[in-house]
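pipeline/complex-builder :: batch 7 item 3
reading input block
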Amino acid sequence: MMKTLDQQIEAMANDYPNLAMVRRSPSGRSCIWKGSIRPFRKTYDLEVFYHAPIAPEVFTISGCQPLVQVRRPTLERHPDYDEGPIPHIYANDEEPAYPYLCLFDPFKPEWTPDDLISATTIPWAERWLLNYEFWLATKIWEGGGRHLSTDDIKRARKPSEVSQQLKGAA
Amino acid sequence: MTNEDPFDDPLEAIFAEAAIRVQLPPSKYQLACDRYDAVSTHAERDGSPLKDKIARFYPQGSMAIGATIAARGKDEEYDIDIVAELLLPLGSCPKYVLDLLFNAIKGDEGSIYYEMVKRRTRCVTIYYADGMHLDITPVILREDRLERTSDLFHDDPDEPQEPAETPLTNACGISETFKANTVDTTGFAEAYARNTRALDLLAEAEIEEVDPQEDIARKSSDVVALQLIKRFRNTRYKDRNGRMPPSVLLSKYVSDASNPSQSLVYALGYHAAHIRKQLVTAEARGRLVDESNPACVEDSFTDRWPLTRTAQQEFISDLDELLAVLQQLKTGDVSMAEMQDLLVPIFGDFPVKAAVRAAQDRVGKASRSARTTHKPGGGILLGAAASVISRPARASTNMGGRLFK
């Protein structure tokens, strides 16, 4: 069953009290969490945005997925590294320095609004960050993943800017 | 991070993988044993000046305690220390004994070791094309002393005016004490052996026949910490002139303070701090450290280092830097790349970068197969075993590109 935003907020408060909810939209359907997380020995400031869909069919999974940004330190760009300039991110045209982490395959789908963000998105972000740290050290990406295929693009109905639209709603 | 496999913590994995890359691999350990057996047989051949005069060859020093690492400044070269116990009269002249062993090994022109052997001050060295050196030290057993106490022989062929000496030694005594003190009582040795064998396929193929107690791949955290301290010393002294703290002295300190642990990072810091304390205590008294073989008090471990307070202070300063780096790694806010940058000056470029790559491989495999668990509030554990405070995260596929609605 699809989790309500209240359920998401409650689970986040329990599992990641360090990621505090800092803003909630008047509609009550979107919110932003901010805070620090330390997957290994390095601390990162994250911002997580989520807009809970009214019903799953209204959105594609990629469109309603939680959006995770690393606000500090700014993610390093290395076009000459494996999977560079930054591995497995969604570009952010409005704030290019703060792309969204690409954490799951929306076409399988590995995440749905039935899932708790605290049990999926945040652990996946930790995994991504640890693999990113190794990528910076070795120039090699070992975190796995795949890139959008032509079929994926055909299956997707609306090219994005969704993030900013959703953020505006919050 | 702690877990059943100590190397599920990437920091522990990096230190262990670095140690594995600087140590004598089990396959080369076996090769060294085969080689000194062959040299012993060769030296006892018919017509050899040592025919029927060799009691035994046995490993000494790092080779005897399983702590051999690559030579100073040479990542692919190993010095293997072997004792040749000879059946010669007590009181034999040092020059005579050393020359006898040299000639017995060298043999006639065209024989196997003829072009490979060099007479040195206390030993005869055989140089192999693959970078291994066998330092074979002749001794004569002193049956009037504790078991294996022996005379060794000092005669510098390049300084004939320098007086020859016959100091006492007991290589076996210190090795046996070290091995008894540093037996693993945790799961560390088995985990370390698994990782060692993964990099040393030949040893893996042969391991089935090895008694676990005799398995050279199994090392306690004390032994591996000693290897890393020696590597650190080699790195620091690579471009310095003069002698460096001798391995036997570092081994004694580790043996004296043995404390098998599941954590290699802890063990390294613990032993580095213990060694530093011994040096600082001597320094505070205005003295040089003075240590000898507990199995033979005449066998000084500090007769050639430190010879000055400056030399002693220099290594104290080195250990301060090592301890500061360990502290920063444990409590600082450092990324993996920053860790790598901190560790390269400590252990050298090759083992650190290879170790980080190996740890990355473990993290990558765990990530791709969803074998990670996550602590509340943040913090990743690798491996399938979830602790009571962490939860597994299921599989996911990193994507990328542009968002679609």
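note: Residues 101 and 256 of chain B are 34 Å apart (CA to CA).
queue -> next item
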